[in-house]
């Protein structure tokens, strides 16, 4: 609230310092508010990483992959996000069919201007330059 008042005061000062403020100018001043956001907590971030690692390798078609996807969706829902899972299959380079899911968690989906954050949550079956484990 204090920041909002300071911002309005600054806007009024700038408005009148630019020459002859009128009632019409004052009608166009809009109060800007900012929502609070949680502080970053390193302990929580580490616990979330540890939880994902504890599921084991998140290779598609594995129990670790399924459990991690379910946990991520539940965690997003617990924070009040609107969650969708887009399930699909894809063929790997060797023809193996992979069961995959895009997880979409939306905050305030009705807003026109939003930010997208995206990341892979699964692990690869084979490393690009792994000469020991080809399959």
Helical amount: 25-40%
Distance between the amino and carboxyl termini: 59 Å
Oligomerization state of this entry?
Answer: single chain
Overall, the morphology is elongated
Give the overall average pLDDT: 82
pLDDT below 50 for ≥5 consecutive residues: which ranges? Answer: none
Number of helices: 4
The beta-strand count equals 2
Give the amount of beta strand, in percent. Answer: 5-15%
Main pleated-sheet profile: 2 strands, antiparallel
- Spatial strand arrangement across the major sheet: 1-2
Secondary-structure element series? HHHHEE
What structural category do the secondary elements indicate?
alpha+beta
Instruction: Tell me the Rg in angstroms.
Output: 24 Å
Protein architecture, described:
The structure is a single chain. This protein has 135 residues and is of the alpha+beta class. The chain has a domain of 80 residues. Helix content is 37%, strand content 15%. The chain contains four helices and two strands. The radius of gyration is 24 Å and the shape is elongated.
Keywords:
alpha+beta; two-stranded antiparallel ribbon
Which SSEs are present, and which pair or pack?
Blueprint: H1 2-17, H2 23-27, H3 42-54, H4 63-78, E1 82-91, E2 97-106
Structure in a nutshell:
By secondary structure, the protein is an alpha+beta fold. The chain has helices spanning 2-17, 23-27, 42-54, 63-78; strands at 82-91, 97-106. The protein has a domain at 56-135.
């Amino acid at each position: 609230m204090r920041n909002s008042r300071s911002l309005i005061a600054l806007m009024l000062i700038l408005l009148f310092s630019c020459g002859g403020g009128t009632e019409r100018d004052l009608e166009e001043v809009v109060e800007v508010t900012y929502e609070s956001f949680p502080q970053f907590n390193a302990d929580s971030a580490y616990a979330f990483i540890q939880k994902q690692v504890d599921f084991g390798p998140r290779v598609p078609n594995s129990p670790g992959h399924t459990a991690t996807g379910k946990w991520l969706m539940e965690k997003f829902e617990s924070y009040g996000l609107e969650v969708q899972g887009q399930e699909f299959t894809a063929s790997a380079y060797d023809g193996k069919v992979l069961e995959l899911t895009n997880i979409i968690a939306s905050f305030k989906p009705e807003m026109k201007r939003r930010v997208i954050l995206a990341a892979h949550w699964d692990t690869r079956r084979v490393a690009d330059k792994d000469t020991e484990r080809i399959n």
